[in-house]
């Protein structure tokens, strides 16, 4: 009896130990789970911190653009229309380079001579070479130089404004309207002189990347100091570049400042580093006495681009397969009702790289016809490959037929039957 009780007690102890071990195991699992979950949350927070977009910018409108593709990498009210002050002069400069000659003589009108400060101080009747006026325009931001250029290149300020608006439209600037060549606040029956941060960045991209005169544009806007005289040699002038950003960051490429009462402080600038070119455009970036706000915003946006965006090859091989063609000529199986032809993607390069953040992924989708009726020509489009990022189309390629297939018509049947049944017997 005592032995039986002892065995019972041992059994109870064993069960109790097992329960304790199970409880301990559950506790360990819960601890590991909670710790792991906490670790995961920490990692997520670290990733979010790593890709956190710039905050607390002073500018009321700001964008960061990839100058190679024109893709907007960051935008704060980027499509809001605002006055842009002397950042206007990048358009004046590039049009003067494209439509004028550097050694062209530019005469000064009374209207040009009457422009407010900041001005060169040109006098009615004087003449200057366009080359020299461009340095005056871009380094010192002289308002009279802008009008002299406009009146001589565009025949009038209004004529030059038409050229500016035509170029803006050509570049895809849908929310920009130019009235003056110098950016002074102005309005007419069509509206006020304005742009958007996105459009301003788009114009800068053209000036430094796409224009046939981009090299001269960069030469002018990167010059620190410049001296010149009027065409007669009687009056001497000196210009100093006021784009302080050129000395602020390694790789600073070009830029233009601006200020008016309506616009506030504005800036558009560019930077190149390790094959990447970024453009920053800022509008309404403070008013006096906050002249330095534009430099803080520019550096913040440029550093964001430099730290988070790298080139990645996104090209993918697409399994295009074949296309089933009905009633087409197949020399190997002449009387089969259908045949298949190979397909290929037209125009793809071996490598296609774009700037991407670590957390960005390009989606590649394709669609194509499953079948077609003959005839089908070689290179005929039967589908499309689409590369998209965040729902935005980056690029598309056509899926085309790799060979041609003629149609089986009455003449083909007669000729084929004659060859098979008569010529072979002969």
From TrEMBL:
Domain called Peptidase S11 D-alanyl-D-alanine carboxypeptidase A N-terminal: residue spans: 51-281
Functional note: Removes C-terminal D-alanyl residues from sugar-peptide cell wall precursors.
Binding of substrate, residues: 256
Name of the protein this chain belongs to: serine-type D-Ala-D-Ala carboxypeptidase
Keywords, comma-separated and alphabetical: Carboxypeptidase, Cell shape, Cell wall biogenesis/degradation, Hydrolase, Membrane, Peptidoglycan synthesis, Protease, Signal, Transmembrane, Transmembrane helix
UniProt family annotation: Belongs to the peptidase S11 family.
Catalytic activity: Preferential cleavage: (Ac)2-L-Lys-D-Ala-|-D-Ala. Also transpeptidation of peptidyl-alanyl moieties that are N-acyl substituents of D-alanine
Pathway assigned in UniProt: Cell wall biogenesis; peptidoglycan biosynthesis
EC code: 3.4.16.4
Broad EC category: hydrolase
């Amino acid at each position: 009896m005592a032995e039986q009780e002892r065995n019972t007690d041992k059994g109870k102890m064993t069960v109790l130990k097992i329960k304790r071990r199970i409880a301990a195991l559950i506790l360990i699992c819960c601890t590991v789970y909670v710790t792991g979950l906490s670790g995961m949350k920490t990692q997520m927070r670290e990733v979010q911190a790593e890709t956190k977009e710039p905050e607390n910018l002073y500018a009321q409108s700001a964008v960061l653009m990839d100058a190679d593709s024109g893709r907007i990498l960051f935008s704060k009210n980027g499509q809001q229309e605002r006055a842009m002050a002397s950042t206007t002069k990048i358009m004046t400069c590039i049009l003067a380079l494209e439509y004028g000659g550097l050694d062209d003589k530019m005469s000064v009108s009374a209207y040009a001579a009457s422009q407010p400060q900041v001005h060169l101080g040109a006098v009615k009747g004087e003449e200057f070479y366009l080359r020299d006026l461009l340095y005056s325009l871009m380094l010192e931001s002289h308002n009279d130089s802008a009008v002299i250029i406009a009146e001589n290149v565009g025949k009038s300020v209004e004529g030059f404004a038409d050229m500016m608006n035509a170029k803006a439209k050509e570049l895809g600037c849908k929310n920009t309207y130019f009235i003056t060549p110098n950016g002074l606040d102005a309005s007419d029956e069509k509206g006020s002189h304005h742009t958007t941060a996105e459009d301003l960045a788009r114009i800068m991209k053209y000036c430094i990347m796409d224009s046939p005169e981009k090299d001269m544009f960069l030469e002018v806007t990167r010059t620190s100091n410049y001296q010149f005289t009027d065409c007669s040699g009687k009056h001497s002038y000196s210009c100093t570049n006021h784009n302080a950003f050129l000395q602020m960051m390694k790789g600073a490429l070009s830029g233009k400042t601006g200020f008016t009462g309506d616009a506030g402080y504005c800036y558009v600038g560019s930077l190149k580093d390790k094959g990447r070119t970024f453009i920053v455009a800022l509008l309404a970036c403070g008013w006096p006495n906050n002249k330095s706000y534009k430099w803080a915003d520019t550096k913040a946006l440029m550093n964001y681009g430099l730290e988070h965006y790298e080139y990645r090859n996104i090209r993918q091989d697409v399994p295009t397969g074949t296309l089933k063609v009905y009633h087409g000529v197949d020399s190997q199986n002449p009387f089969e009702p259908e045949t298949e032809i190979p397909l290929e993607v037209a125009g793809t390069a071996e490598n296609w790289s774009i700037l991407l953040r670590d957390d960005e992924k390009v989606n590649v989708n394709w669609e194509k016809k499953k079948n077609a009726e003959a005839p089908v020509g070689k290179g005929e489009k039967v589908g499309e490959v689409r590369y998209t990022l965040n729902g935005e189309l980056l690029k598309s390629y056509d899926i085309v037929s790799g060979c041609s297939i003629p149609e089986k018509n009455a003449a083909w049947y007669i000729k084929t039957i004659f060859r098979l049944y008569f010529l072979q017997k002969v």
